[in-house]
Amino acid sequence: MSLPERPPLDLDRLHAPGAIGDPWHEITVVDQSPSTNTDLINAAASTSTGSVLVAEHQTAGLGRLGRQWESPARSSLTVSVLLRPSVDLARWGWLALLAGVALRETVAGLGLSAALKWPNDLMIGPDEAKAAGILAQVSGPAVVIGIGVNVTNTREELPIPTATSLQLSGATAPDRTGLLLDLLANVGRRYLDWEAAGGDAQRSGLADEYRRHCSTLGRAVNVEHAGGGTHSGTATGIDADGRLLLRTKGNDELAIGAGDVHHLRAIGDSL
Question: Confidence class of residue 271 from pLDDT cuts 50, 70 and 90?
């Protein structure tokens, strides 16, 4: 079986004058990194806000609940950005959701139907196959947002049977360089609007946009917590700080700030 052609990122395009706008400062591309998030966090004290780090091959990418993953070189888009928001820390929970909304728009530009699973997964198609994940980590006055997108991965290269790639989902010869530039533009625009609104996701329009594209809302779900334990119920909304609102069978409403969500069925189905 022949593998898809996997050219390197086009550095001339990425570094061309005007290729990126605010809030981005510079794009650094490395051949290999264990984790672009870890690299930026470790260098946060000496790294400018708006810095972008991309790895052609990420060997120990970080996911939720401490999971690690690796994909073949140049098969994915693995990028982390460092920002220093000038808004209250309590509002920073929206940043992973903001990145998800921007990523969904970017993928929709390739003609793919995508939705967001709270808090950090991009799902494609009626079977809700995972094509991308997002991880936001706070480091002092900075936040690092990592985005990993399966671009040309074959089915055999994917870590789990329920995952997919943009190419497997129908995107023809996806261009990682163009994908990166579009993604940065879409994240940057929303970030500036969110920051200008003082981190108020409702006032900036982010909250409505996220709710519109979040397939978790209205679903029966299980939420697995990093420290152990689970909660089950119906996902009813997203609160002002980006937390998932969960109504339990006992009719209690919980605000979930972090966790691994498993969709069970659509609202209205019998439990």
Answer: very low
